[in-house]
Design a protein that fits this description.
By secondary structure, this protein is of the alpha+beta class. The chain is built from 2 helices and 4 strands, in the order ββαββα. The chain has one domain. The chain has a two-stranded antiparallel sheet with strand order 1-2. A two-stranded antiparallel ribbon has the order 3-4.
Length: 86
Amino acid sequence: MKTIKGLETYASFYLGSDEKFARRIFDLIEGDREIKENSIISMDLTQRHKGVPYPVSILHCNWEHLAFNTKLITKEMFKELNLEHN
């Protein structure tokens, strides 16, 4: 989130180590790919290599996007962790 002090991270979702799954989820969430002057909230897809985070993609969100994305990520993670895969 953009604040008067700069960018502040206040939450993160761990989507696991399956890169294909993480990218699928990130492709479902809502937001704008292009940075805008008034962008306040961003959701970043990062990949860790030897513990170091590397940015892969970013979405700039409004409050409605953030609420939708949080629900979507939670629902998809629940399904991934609890439902059997065929």
